[in-house]
Amino acid sequence: MSEQNEASRSLTVTPLHGMPLFSTGTCVAREIAAAMAREGDALRDGDVVVVAQKIVSKSEGRTARLKEVVAGAEAVRIAGETQRDAAAVQLILDQSSEIMRAHPAAIIARHKTGHVLANAGIDASNVEGGEDDTVLLWPVDPDASAREIRAELRDLTGATPAVVIADSMGRAWRIGTLGTAIGCAGLCVVDDRRGADEDLFGRTLQATMIAVADAVAGAAVLAMGEGAEGTPAALVRGVGRWVSTEDGPGTTAGLRPVEQDMFR
Length: 264
Description:
Blueprint: H1 3-7, E1 12-15, H2 28-38, E2 48-52, H3 53-59, E3 63-65, H4 73-82, H5 86-94, E4 96-102, E5 107-111, E6 116-118, E7 134-136, H6 142-157, E8 162-170, E9 177-185, E10 191-192, E11 209-210, H7 212-224, E12 233-237
């Protein structure tokens, strides 16, 4: 086994503490670098920085006020069927390319980015004013946001870590949410090992495709917390063999094509 593969067996996740409340214009990369300095550490090539979607959206000014939204006829219809606020439904429609299911528990939508999730990722938790009518939308292009943060980190620190933007999403046929990559730069999204490796008994792998970016996001979000912990970023080490100097195609590389949907 190579030294690189041996090192990848040790995985560490370190939440970055002491970060401020983010608002429009707050530089995510600068705050990550400052948090690393407080930890007495420095970013290295091969590191992965996982960032909560909320602080990226806040820094990009992706807030909306429900009282300023004008609901159309389709939003009013769906709101009646799901017992939801019509303005909130209109925002979901605005952020989506398709509504998959509409139910009082959740509206399952295909976001304009291609990700399928509840309520198009629109959320009011941990949002200042969320107790009133302010909600947070996803970044317009999370992969582009990840590439920008990565470039800024390189300029600030001289290192080129991978960057993953994570949000908590549900999973088909499972209860609960899991940290999931919605934006990625510099990290393998899916490691396709079909035909390239063997199992313990020498059989060629036929179906193994590892969701690397999602696995890293899940580990980081578990350590970061999703309530009042106030740690919206984490440093992941030990997955360097999947980190690349190139930004890569982003999380869109891990989205299943619509024509492969077996549940329509």
